[in-house]
Each structure stands twice: as C-alpha cells, then as structure tokens.
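[Meeting: bench + compute handoff]

Bench side (C.D.) handed over the final construct sequence. Compute side (W.E.) agreed to return the predicted structure before the next meeting so the bench team could plan truncations. Sequence as handed over:
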Amino acid sequence: MTTPTGRARARLLALLAAIALVLAACGDDTETSDPTPDPGAGSSDDGNDDGDGSTDDADPPADLTTDDVLVALAASGLGDILVDGAGLSLYGFTNDVDGVPACYDACADAWPPILVDGALDDGALGAGLDAAVFSTVERTDGTNQLVAGTWPLYLFAGDGAPGDVNGQGSGDVWFLAAPDGSLIGRDAPTDDEPATDEPAFVDTATTDAGDVLVDENGLSLYGFTNDVDGVPTCFDACADAWPAVSVDGMALPEGLDAAIFSIVDRGDGTYQLAAGSWPLYRFAGDGAAGDINGQGVGGVWFLAAPDGSLIGRDAPAGDEAAAAPASDY
C-alpha cells in the first residue's frame, strides 16, 4: 500500500527527472552548433548579385569610346566620306603623285596630315571600313601618314565641326576621301591626257578688307610681294599652300580688262593670271567664299584689289625695293 508521503516523493522524483532531460537536451544543442561562420556565406567576392544589380568580382565594362579610332565612315551631302575619330572630314591631295606626300610646312599648317603612331591595326578603323583600303606612308620627317587607296589623308584647318566640307575642291587639288579610297568630285585624267586647271574667271567681291578679286568660286585672290617685276617665285611647297591661278595659255580669258590683267609664263610650261604687276594666287587656308585668311601672312601675302594693287601692303618709297623675308611663303 502506498502512503501519501510515498506518492509525493514519487511525483517529485519524476519532476526532477524531466528537468534533467530538458537540461541535457539544451546542453547538446549548444555543444553541436558551430559558432564559426561559413566562409562562403555573405562573402563580398562570391560573384553573386549583392542586391544592387552588380557583382563585386565582375570585370569592369570595356571602354566603348572612339578615342582610338583613327578613321571612320560618315554620311555627307556629297555621299559617304571618311572622317577622323572626332568626325572631321578627311581629304586627299592630287599633287600627292603615286601616294607620296607633297604637303609640308605652310601647306601642312592648312592641311594637317593624319599621322599613325605605330602599326595600323583593326582597332584604328571604324565600323564598315575595309582594312584592305588603308595603309601608311612615311613622310620626310620620319612620321607615318594614313593612306586610303593611293591618297595620303589630311584634315582641313577651315573645317571647324563634324559635317563641314569646306575644303572640297579647294584649288582644284583637294577633294574629300571616299570609303573606297577614291576622291569625291575629282575628274581623273586619262593615261595620255595630263591634268590641267580650268581657265580662271575672275570677279570682284566685298569682304571685311574691302573689295577684292575672287575666282569663279568666290575664293579670294592674293599677290606675293616676293614676285618682283611680276615674275612668279612661288613653287613646290609654297605652291601647295598658295596655288597659282592658272590659265590655258597666253590668251587673256574673255571678259577681263587687258588694262589690268595679263598672263605670265611660270617657266614650267604653265601660265598664270596676273593683276597689275602681281601674279595671282589662291590660299589653301580659305575654305569658303568671303574667307580672307591669307591676308598679311608672313608680311608678304596680300589680297588683290580690283585695280591690281595689293590691299594693306606698304609700298616702298621711290625706287626702294621691298625687302623680302627669309621665308618664301
């Protein structure tokens, strides 16, 4: 028979046993839990999205700028043309016979060459261009110039923004370069027919310097004070920057006043129009009608006035000849 005291003791023992089991279970959980965090959990370099759409160990995006592009394709009112990495139009010079650059010194100031630093690689060419069209040629100063087809490429100082084509047709020797390496608007001579300049037709125009003589395209005409007694002295590199106003022969073009205009023999088989005692020239740095960028250059180049005098030139007194500067142009 179990007494009340015995039953109470049994209940107490059962309660103590239950408490011991609970404490044992808690102790097991604490001992088996690993307090060391998982090296991979929450790592900043696991390559997973951090929630902001980026990954910490992903490679940075490639530079997609066109800084390294040397020549590209662009549309113009004259068709597709070649441009530099900044979008400025590129030109060829018909005096660069057989791909040999002939534009230096003052000519290169007006028509800067496109230079290549090192080997020409595919990264230098814009989309849509054929690498087979392009090459380089060494200039006399040891630099390398980009060539399209057979034409060394140049910028024009008179172009100020992408889309400008102010150099097109300048002096009848500068033409826009096409993507296939040809020159736009150039009439190539046949094998047995040498290239000749079209006869010049001269008019007058009003500029900021006053009334001046201009050619049939409205480009300003200049005289060179080194042409003493009307004898032309601007040849080679000088003539690249200052193309002579050429005529077909010694006959004065129709419509010109013989009291002012005449023809002089340049001594190389070509003939040049003169006004007063001054053989006439264009300036390669003038890209549009009304430009007078050549006025006063070197203290020897001056705009030609309708009466055959030179605007802004201080004529020497009496028989004193004007001293010629060291530079020919």
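W.E. noted at the follow-up: The chain has a mean pLDDT of 78. C.D. will use this when planning the next construct.
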